[in-house]
Amino acid sequence: MNIQNLNPFFKGPKGEVLCQVAEKFWENGFCCYIAGGAVRDFLIGREINDLDLVTDALPKDIIKLFPKNIQVGIQFGIVVIIYKGHHFEVATFRSDGEYIDGRHPENVIFSSAELDAQRRDFTINALFYDLKTNIIIDFVNGREDIKLRLIRAVGSPQLRFQQDHLRVLRALRFEAQLDFQIESETWNSIKQWATSIPKVSAERIKQELSKGINSGAPCLFVLHLKTSGVYDVLFDNFITEIKNEIKLINKEIIKTQFMNEVILNQIYFEGKLNDLKINLFSPADLLSFLVLSFYYNFFENLIKELYLAYHSSISQKMNIHFNWGLKFDKSFKNISNYFNLSKLESKKFKELLSVSWYVSQWPKFRLGYRLNFLNECQSNLMLNLLYYQLPDHKNEFEIAKVKPSLFLNGTDVENLPPLQRGSFLKELLYLQWEGSIKSKPEALELLKNVYSKYKEESFRSSH
Question: What residues contact residue 86 under an 8 Å CB cut-off, 6+ apart?
């Protein structure tokens, strides 16, 4: 029996090499498992990006088996092996010693698969896939939590976040990426350990925030940053400084050199985060973050000040409450050019801004239009933002997933004038969405009435 045909991780060029890597471990009496996020994503059906391996082989054994390697974390039992042009991170099963800096253990003890699983952050990330038997090994009920779509800390949530403060942000990021919910005890511990986040390196904070903002549910990510307390801890100094900068100078100076040189360069690029100076966000990312925050009224006045400070005439055209109408595109183009956004950044930012207009107008739209808009919307970002901004309309998002098949087609309406055919079929679609037309005979009756009206109007216009 060819095990390569049975194993989902052995597909493709890298999978073929992985199979050979695993066989080298087996031939020398060691096990070889896939660990962590790859197993989780395999069970969920998500694309698998990173393949991390774990084994009972000691680091010295791994180095002997694979002489071409990078000993990036040898003190933690981690070796990156390079085999036939592919890189694989391999870790020895371990238990962690005492955590002294809120991020890393002081030492590790090489142990067993079970103890290795028990040291990990969340149950959904503590699964192993035995490459030899194709069996998923679960010591922490991670598979059940995947079925329940829950993010639950392994063991004591208090201990997990005390050991590694970054896990607070990772939980919020996984929630947004996977569309899972955080288990209640884990959530309570997140709120208790939110104040510990500034102790984590600025670069790691930046990575998690960027992943969250660019996840499938950035609006939810920002919301839970706020409700967990993380948002206030991270951005209190940051927001205060922007406000102070705006208050120090008048609008005429801001809208010329000062806005560009001071606010963009000093605050956006320098990214002051509790006095940690890092490149936190690009201008587009930070503007997106501000807009997302606006949705939840975290600092509505600040955003108004930023736009007003940027250019008073543009602000008037935009109307800060986003009632832009026909002037939207022109106003957006001015902002996009001012911040020198790329086409991709402009597209993303425009989606963020246009959502506000749709939210304000949503109740005024007929149901058929709303359902059809949701069905045809190609932007996952826009759909997520609308979903969290329209809590009274959440059922519409589920209904809109299945578009009704039109009872009539182009041939049926060919007696209508060309310009009316498309309009009629669109109206028919809306009526079917709304449940007003439930059968083909009803659709034909509607067509008959419309055609009769058209003939009557044509007769009047010709006499």
Answer: 13, 14, 17, 18
